[in-house]
Design goal:
The complex is a heterodimer of chains A (about 260) and B (about 290). Chain A has helices at about 45-55, 95, 100-105, 110-120, 135-150, 165-185, 195-200, 230-255; strands at about 5-15, 20-30, 35-40, 60-65, 70, 80, 155-160, 185-190, 205-210, 215-220. Chain A is an alpha/beta fold. Chain A has a six-stranded mixed beta sheet, sandwiched between helices. A four-stranded antiparallel beta sheet of chain A has the order 2-1-4-5, with helices on one face. Chain B starts with a helix and ends with a helix. The chains are: A alpha/beta (about 260), B mainly alpha (about 290). Chains A and B meet through strand 6 and helix 3 of A and helix 9 and helix 10 of B.
């Protein structure tokens, strides 16, 4: 197992200083070169879980283990893609992609050849010297992916990375990501609220409950890719997941205000 | 509505002018404006405000630009100008450096440690509104008439914009950028060097610019009342000895030094950060040029 999450729980303090449970007893595993998607209603703690796994946030109880060793803080073995891309605005595309290598003091010539490789992987040739504000959303996301890949992490954590893209770009980016995933042999944990996206990308899908987030169901998907989401099996899975999410929302409505 | 459409039409009908010509046209207009100003000044001075004042007195009231040309050769030749410029610059640079050396660490401390912020904030709030000039009497009592008093006053005048812009800069750092750096393997020190510093640079340039403006204002005031050297002293010297031409010349020199400082130091610094700041990017600059 690459990554093990064991009974992780997290509470925040709400504005009126009452404890607010966001994650409750989360346990799952992520295998080597496995692609796991998490879907759940908004506010179910998906982002918090990713941040805990990345080491950017501290859980109240439970452990996150990487190759058997407990995670104590952020490091380069778990790369993270942020919803808003989090590119360094003062660095060009190339300099953004080379950031992690610079941190590791990789010699400039090696850095150059690695960044050149990943720029071509994400198809950004010709944009090496642009600054982030000169790029479209899809291009920024590709820079962020290249930056994470160039750093050669074992696990990539993705927080709704395609949420702010238009439908077409989104589909293109999903294909792109799958190709990269197949070539790079990384493990991916992918948070989304889009059921189709989860079914198209994942080896497994974890369905979360509403807050406090628990794992409601784990679905294993057929191995073959690319997938035809119109295939009866996927249509059935999709209906199943949507039904679960609907129930979550209904319960929420019945809650006293 | 109709009005708007017609001006829009007019705008569209305007002939397309080449960028080169637009630029030189701007330059010509600016030169003309300055020349017109100098001409008016010369006329007023020569005619005694068109006969309203005796011409003999105009040397005292308002010496002409041509007279100033004589004065400048005089004060350059006998070395007074350079001497006093040197004194003022020395004070400003020392005070400013001192303000930076104390202000940046103080600002960083305030933004990194809640306790430091709570300890330092009352002082910043208490002293920041006091203009640097208000420190002049106290500085003279403490340090006597001289460089030390001047440097102290300048430091007091320049330190607050630096502290505040540093602290604000760190507060404005995008936490996701810090998170991104950490998950790419950066240590806390590397985050500081490669994320915090570049993020706060634009804030720092703004703070430096403000601080430098304060420093000059304060040094002139200090030299006018206390210290008997520097450009502020030259201003009062001119008044005291009836050499209004020297006072006027000193004003021109002060304006020039501040202008040069701004365009030689701060504008390049600002342009450097403008490359990656969308709001100040090249496209915007070009747009401004077209509008202007």
């Amino acid at each position: 197992m690459k990554l093990e999450v064991e009974r992780v729980s997290k509470r925040f303090r709400s504005s009126d200083n009452l404890p607010l449970a966001v994650l409750c007893d989360i346990s799952f595993e992520l295998g080597v070169n496995e692609f796991v998607c998490i879907v759940g209603p908004s506010g179910c703690g998906k982002t918090t879980l990713l941040r805990i796994i990345a080491g950017l946030e501290q859980q109240d109880s439970g452990v996150v283990k990487m190759d058997g060793a407990p995670v104590r803080g952020p490091d380069a073995s778990r790369g993270m893609l942020f919803q808003d891309y989090a590119l360094f605005p003062w660095r060009t595309v190339r300099q953004n992609i080379e950031f992690g290598l610079e941190i590791k003091r990789v010699p400039p010539a090696v850095r150059r050849s690695i960044s050149r490789h990943f720029i071509s992987v994400v198809g950004l040739e010709g944009f090496e010297d642009r600054y982030p504000h000169q790029l479209s959303g899809g291009m920024k996301q590709r820079v962020a992916i290249a930056r994470a890949l160039a750093n050669d992490p074992e696990v990539i954590l993705m927080d709704e990375p395609f949420a702010s893209l238009d439908a077409q770009t989104r589909v293109a980016m999903q294909r792109h990501l799958l190709r990269v995933f197949n070539e790079s042999k990384k493990s991916v944990l992918f948070v989304t609220h889009n059921v189709e996206e989860a079914l198209y990308l994942g080896d497994r899908v974890l369905v979360f409950t509403k807050r406090p987030g628990r794992i409601r169901a784990v679905l294993s998907l057929p191995a073959e890719r690319p997938r035809d989401l119109l295939d009866p099996e996927f249509v059935k899975l999709r209906a199943q997941i949507l039904e679960m999410l609907n129930q979550e929302l209904k319960w929420k409505d019945q809650e006293p205000a | 509505m109709l009005q708007q459409e017609s001006t829009l039409e007019k705008r569209l009908e305007r002939p397309i002018v080449s960028a080169d010509w637009r630029r030189s046209r701007g330059l010509i207009r600016q030169t003309l404006s300055i020349l017109a100003f100098l001409l008016a000044w010369q006329l007023v001075s020569m005619t005694g405000l068109f006969g309203r004042y005796p011409r003999e007195l105009m040397g005292l009231f308002l010496p002409s630009p041509l007279q100033l040309l004589n004065t400048i050769t005089e004060v350059l030749a006998n070395g007074t100008l350079l001497k006093h410029v040197g004194f003022s610059c020395y004070r400003v640079v020392s005070g400013f450096t001192l303000a930076t050396l104390i202000g940046i660490p103080a600002g960083l401390l305030m933004s990194y440690s809640r306790a430091a912020e709570q300890f330092l904030n009352p002082f910043v709030r208490l002293f920041q509104p006091i203009p640097g000039v208000a420190w002049v009497p106290l500085a003279i009592i403490w340090f006597g008439l001289g460089n030390r008093a001047a440097v102290f006053i300048i430091t007091m005048g320049a330190i607050f914009p630096i502290i505040l812009s540093t602290a604000q800069g760190v507060r404005d750092v995008d936490p996701n950028l810090v998170g991104a750096a950490l998950t790419l393997g950066a240590t806390r020190l590397q985050v500081f060097e490669k994320v915090i510093l570049p993020s706060i640079t634009p804030h720092l340039v703004t703070g430096f610019r403000l601080a430098m403006g304060f420093a000059w204002r304060v040094v002139l005031a200090a030299e006018m009342v206390g210290v008997s050297s520097g450009l502020g002293y030259m201003l009062t010297l001119g008044r005291g000895t009836g050499r209004t031409d020297i006072t006027l010349l000193t004003m021109v020199v002060i304006g020039t030094i501040m202008g040069v400082m701004d365009s030689a130091v701060f504008s390049p610094l600002e342009n450097k950060t403008a490359a990656w700041r969308p709001r100040l990017s090249k496209e915007c600059a070009e747009e401004d040029e077209i509008r202007g």
